[in-house]
Structure formats: structure tokens, C-alpha cells
Amino acid sequence: MLKVKPETACIHAVRDATHSTGAVGGTIYQSATFAHPGVGQSTGYDYSRAQNPTREHVEKMLAALEGGTDALAFSSGMAAIAAVMELLSPGDEMIATDDLYGGSVRLFNNVSAKNGVTVRYVDTSDSVAVSAAVGSRTKAIFVESPTNPMMKVSDIGAIKRIIGDKKILLIVDNTFLTPYFCNPLALGADIVIHSGTKYLSGHNDTLAGFVVVRSPEIAEKLRLLQKTIGAVLSPFDAFLVTRGIKTLAVRMEKAQENALKIAPWLGKQSKVTAVHYVGLSDHPAYALSLQQAHGFGAMISFSVDSAKTANAILSNTKLILFAESLGGVETLITYPLMQTHADVPEPERLARGIDEKLLRLSVGIEAAEDIIDDLEKAMQ
């Protein structure tokens, strides 16, 4: 592994040593199975559900970027989270951020609950609330930071101190900031999760999920789960994510540069009533973000004065695409009420501020002036 700066690491931290052609582009091993040299012998690859050279390469990249001992690539971000939840047993309790991606809430409320795992939702940006929630049955704390969609930030180091020597896993979904802007393992997390569909691939052209771990023991448990359940990343999708990561640094920098222009502009618009962006100096966690991250990312949520205004923006943008997902080169606008958080029970959704007036903007890498112009015209 090369010791280089993050920008360089995205390209060169791991080299593909599985071939001798000298090819600069990644190799796609589109094979489900591998031949054995002889009885009791293996090339290290037997069946692609267990491991594939192309998938292994992107896993090593994520482990290197996050500073983990191992990384596992899954067929989607939700498959990655589902595998991690299999580390818990019936009767266990997990504390989770109360402002989560709706798909995570759906999994916890419908599948984890069925499996006997209790999930308690707490404002993890309030360390005192986290401390008060930890009990004898608590086996994990699941944090999204910043949260989706209200952009709350949890103090990962403080939560680790609360855990102390208790046998509680600290799990951090790092999708919004990526390993380029934040490294939760260095702050005390045990497990980091990514929806690789988003910024890591960066082009809205593949589904992927990753789990990066600190402990070899946890890695071994997850490897068994991955091989057994089988929701692995395909070779071609692994190649696409590898290619995406090579431009992660420049994409994150440009998208953030745009967000730092767009968020203040939104705050000056008469029809905008609130702007949630970690990079604004008046954000409650601005100082904390400076301490535990290397950047603010490019996700903005904002509320407008009425559902009518929200629908006008969604219907009238020409450049910005009204679509679910985030983290691609294209700027996307999402209506959490009807898209990402539609399956969250209404009382919980409204309590978190996810109503008919809230919009979420994934800022892309177009010219910021064009994004602003498109929003301005859509609001008129």
C-alpha cells in the first residue's frame, strides 16, 4: 500500500497485481468459477460468491482509503447494512440516529424487528441523549453523519468515549462525506458503511455497497455472512466503482465548491424558509465538522414556504434532475416525503421535519451559476 495524500490514494493506493499485462485500466474477471490447479490446491479464487479478483481490488481500495483492516463489497448499500445487522442476535438492542435514510428505517422496523433486534431511535447529535439511551442490552450504535435528510452531525469520538470498554459496536454510515472527507475508523468507529452507488461510483450507473472494518475478527464474521447470504458485488459493477473512485477527490472538491455557493444563495431567497448544510457557519455542528472531517460534502436540504412552491421547483427545473439517489456528477433534487422517506411512519417523519415543504439537493459538478439559475427560474 502506497503512503500518499488522499487525492493520490484514490488513484494509486492499491495496484492490481493479479495480472502481468501492464494494463493501466482495471481488469474485469467476468467469471463465476475458477479452476483448481490440483486436488487440495487453489489459486485463491474458487467461486465468485466467495471472492473475485475484480471485487477484491475495489475492496482493498476502500480498506486503504478508510484505514480499515478489511472491506467487503456488496450488491447495494442496503445489502451491506443488512449483513452488518446479522452480527446482532435476538434480544439485542441497537441505538440508531433518529434521522436516517428511509431505507435503513424500513430495514430496521420490518426485518430487524422480526429477527428480534430492538432499534431505539435517538438524536445521536446529542451525546447526552446517547449516553442516557445505552443500556445492558445495547450491542450497537448506528450513526449517520451528516444525517439524511436533515444534516445533523454526531460527535463520533464522543460516542466512542461513551461506549468505553463496553462490548458495543459503533457503526457509521459515511456515504455523504466518503473517505475523502471523513474517516470514522480513525475517530473510534468499528464499522463504516457506504452506499457505493452514490459518491464512490459517482455516475449514477451502478448499485454497490461497502462495509469497512477495524477488527479482523469482525471481518471474519462478515466474510462468512457475505459468502453465505450471497449479496456480493458483480465484477463489472466492481470495475465501475473502481473507476469512479479514481475521480472521487476532484468530484468531491468541485461538488463541495458548488454547495458552498448554492447554500448561502438559497438562504437569501424569499421562498426558502430554512437551509440545512453543514458547511454554513451558522450550522449547529459547523465547528464539530471542522474537527472530525476534512470537508462538508455537497448535500443540502432546504424548506420552502409551501407545498405549491416545492412542487413548482420539482416540476420546473430544466438542468437539475428530479430523481432519487445522490452523489453523482449530475445535480439531483429529491422530495423525501414521497421518495427516500415514504416508508417512514408519518408521525416520525413529521417530527423530524420531513414534510411537504422539504427538498433535498445533491449538488453535482456542473457550473454553480447554472445550478443557481435553474433553481431561480423554477421558483418564479
List the SSEs and their pairings:
Blueprint: H1 6-12, H2 53-66, E1 70-74, H3 77-85, E2 93-97, H4 102-112, E3 118-122, H5 127-133, E4 138-144, H6 156-163, E5 169-173, H7 178-181, E6 191-195, E7 209-213, H8 216-229, H9 235-245, H10 248-267, E8 272-276, H11 286-292, E9 299-304, H12 307-316, E10 321-322, E11 332-334, H13 346-351, E12 358-362, H14 368-379
Could you give a short description of this structure?
The protein has 380 residues and is α/β, with parallel strands linked by helices. The chain has helices at 6-12, 53-66, 77-85, 102-112, 127-133, 156-163, 178-181, 216-229, 235-245, 248-267, 286-292, 307-316, 346-351, 368-379; strands spanning 70-74, 93-97, 118-122, 138-144, 169-173, 191-195, 209-213, 272-276, 299-304, 321-322, 332-334, 358-362.
What distinguishing features does this structure have?
380 residues; alpha/beta; Aspartate Aminotransferase, domain 2; Aspartate Aminotransferase, domain 1; seven-stranded mixed beta sheet; five-stranded mixed beta sheet; 37% helix; globular
Task: Characterise this structure.
The chain is of the alpha/beta class and 380 residues long. The chain folds into 2 domains: 6-245, 3-Layer(aba) Sandwich (Aspartate Aminotransferase, domain 2), CATH 3.40.640; 248-379, Aspartate Aminotransferase, domain 1. 37% of the residues lie in helices and 15% in strands. It has helices spanning 6-12, 53-66, 77-85, 102-112, 127-133, 156-163, 178-181, 216-229, 235-245, 248-267, 286-292, 307-316, 346-351, 368-379; strands at 70-74, 93-97, 118-122, 138-144, 169-173, 191-195, 209-213, 272-276, 299-304, 321-322, 332-334, 358-362. The strands form 2 sheets. The chain has a 7-stranded mixed β-sheet, with helices on both faces. Strands 8-9-12-11-10 form a 5-stranded mixed β-sheet. Strand 2 (93-97), helix 4 and strand 3 (118-122) form a beta-alpha-beta unit.
